[in-house]
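Known limitations

Structure tokens in this collection are predictions and should be treated as such. Users comparing against experimental data should check residue numbering before alignment. To illustrate the layout, the record for HAT C-terminal dimerisation domain-containing protein is reproduced below. The input appears on top and the generated tokens appear beneath it.
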Amino acid sequence: MRSINNGRVSYQYPDGRFSIHSVISKFQICFFLHVLKNTLETMRNTESNFDNIYKKVIKLCEDNQIVIPPVKKRKVSSKVDCFSSTQNFMDTKEEEMRITVYNVTLDQMINGIDLRFSQETLNMIKSIANVLELNVDDNDITILTKTFHLEAEMLKSEISLLQHTDNVPKSTIKNCDTWIKWLTEFNSGRETIFNNIFKMLKIFITIPVTSCSCERAFSKLSLIKTKLRSTMHQDRLDGLLTMSIEQKLAYNLNIDDIIEQFKILSPSERRMVL
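Generated tokens:
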């Protein structure tokens, strides 16, 4: 079954799986990600950006008669920081908003981009773009053969054949859709001749729709949430849930180091922070 939604063409396979065949060039997305990250880093490192935002917020509050709450100096619990000399108190509302809201939000956004779009993924997308431009080097061949399990010499030969083919796609924005349609044109046999390129593009345009991470978290929560849930705090539940979801990391922990740390704790501290 096929449906079109928000510029995307969705396919449903007989076994219920979905894939998205995007009509938007993924190479443009790669470029915009780079621009977005640079913009966020500039905002994070330039104080004038925050100053302008803060002035606009102050003016908006004054125009709408919104009272700005004063800064509350809250002492940090001794369980978190037992040395008073290291505790820091905000003197102004501007400083508080910059440190606890503005900087934290930008840091999370920048780290989120690095986490979701690794350098390996971006290099792979750039290599795909070079293939569509028929301008590849040895590094691109190495990345693509390793990622998509292709034969390096066969891939080089297919690209060389395409470079001497007259009727390859000539659109100004060469995306995967144009190439897939050209390779699978009826009775052309191109998908067989250029088997490695066709396999590479077919895998590249298939993107899973379901949010596996969210579903995994909820399914693990139902397993952890037993009758003991009523006797534990939210922090302990979060810790157990994290350990259950990230089992691979938990299995690789050094048990001896954990035991040594547990031995030096006082009886009141034996319940370690998860």
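For this record: Confidence is low (pLDDT under 50) at residues 1-24. Strands lie at 2-5, 8-12, 18-22. Please report discrepancies through the issue tracker.
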